[in-house]
Amino acid sequence: MSGSTSVSRKTFDNVMLPVYAPAEFVPVKGKGSKVWDQQGNEFIDFSSGIAVTALGHCHPALVNALKTQGEMIWHTSNLFTNEPALRLAQKLIDTTFADRVFYANSGAEANEAAFKLARRYAITRYSPYKTKIIAFTHAFHGRTLFTVSVGGQPKYSDGFGPKPADIVHVPFNDLDAVKAVIDDHTCAVVLEPVQGEGGITPVDAEFLRGVRALCDQYQALLVFDEVQSGMGRTGTLFTYMQYGVTPDILTSAKALGGGFPISAMLTTEEIAQVMAPGVHGTTYGGNPLACAVAEAAFDVINTPAVLSGVKVRYNYIVSQLEKINDVYHVFSDIRGLGLLIGAELQPAYQNMARDFLTAAIDNGLMVLNAGANVIRFAPSLVIPESDLEQGMIRFEKAVKQIVETKGK
Ligand SMILES: *Cc1c(COP(=O)(O)O)cnc(C)c1O
Q1: Which of 104, 48, 41, 50 is nearest to 78 (CA)?
Q2: Pocket of ligand 1, candidates 191, 229, 250, 254: which has the most ligand atoms within 8 Å of its Cβ, to mutate?
Q3: What is the pTM of this model?
Q4: In angstroms, what is the span from residue 230 Cα to ligand 1's centroid?
Q5: How far, CA to CA in Å, does 297 sit from each of 43, 96, 111?
Q6: What is the pLDDT of residues 313-343, one digit of tens each?
Q7: What residues does each domain of the chain span?
Q8: How far apart are CA 169 and CA 247, in angstroms?
Q9: Is 254 part of the annotated catalytic residue set?
Q10: How many angstroms does the Cα of residue 110 sit away from the middle of ligand 1?
Q11: Which fold, 9-58+304-407?
Q12: For domain 73-301, which CATH number applies: 3.40.50.970, 2.40.50.140, 3.40.640.10, 3.30.70.2860?
């Protein structure tokens, strides 16, 4: 017996730091794109644990890697290297612009490493004053004090005392705004190729090319936070590959481990050389268990079958959302890239994204919001057609419920 019945959702309110407001049910089991709660109720999962379980729950290849490595060796520290870490690093290098990999455990830590590296590079190669980081409003880069300060949502970074200095925010997809602030003291421009938490906003191709040119002109590094948009989520291994614009540093997390905590920062040989033993590190980064699972996830995700299936599923979801909208007129915009889709609510439904989530749960569906006004769809990249169809039917019921309740 797992003892899962001795704790319940109510326990949360008594024992956990109150930084989350989780749903009223407790998931206990998942298989593919289905999840079951303590009472045995079934849910279809369009959330993937916030774009993490890209291959669904308990994918056999990942379970197998976890079990196999679990009986080999779990942890070695960075006083030793290990085979899964080296194999995964080699694969990441072989398939991207990068020559060097640094592992951590979360998206925030990968970004923390990226921002420290960008500053270190500029200070070492150019000047101690080349420390300005240009970032974007509505961006999200994690919750450490540095990353949350680079993020463009002051409500997340205010209230914790002095913030790291020399960070400037400008509107996303606005090249003139970047031009107005970039200078010789700029060490990096940081952006998400698709802003995730900020409302599912893909970067504009022309803007991205313009930012790359500005970075080259001012010897600033271009950093792509692909924590959410990477690892197949938008239909290519990383989103930058669709734009033909190459970063100097890229971060990956979320889907990288398919649900096992791991993140990576990728960069070039030239930039990597400003680091040396002792300059940066983490206890768990590159842990063999995490890397073994991530390697298995990588091998499945980076295949034509999985990557090409993303577009097909995107088309289906968007066409169903448009049909739903024709009937209920709840969305003002449906946008996104691959299986990172946002449906923005009409003014009449302002700040009601969480209500849609709750209504979806009532109908056996897990979806996400991205801010107060956008419903986010991020199902597994391999979600079966039948689950996708059933999930959209359940979503339509949820929308109907909201519209009818509001009309009363
Ligand atoms: C989720 C996310 C992060 C933070 O990752 P954690 O693992 O929660 O630290 C950073 N950047 C982006 C784009 C994200 O979506």
Answers
A1: 104
A2: 254
A3: 0.97
A4: 11
A5: 23, 16, 21
A6: 999 999 999 999 999 999 999 999 999 999 9
A7: 9-58+304-407, 73-301
A8: 19
A9: yes
A10: 9
A11: Aspartate Aminotransferase, domain 1 (3.90.1150)
A12: 3.40.640.10
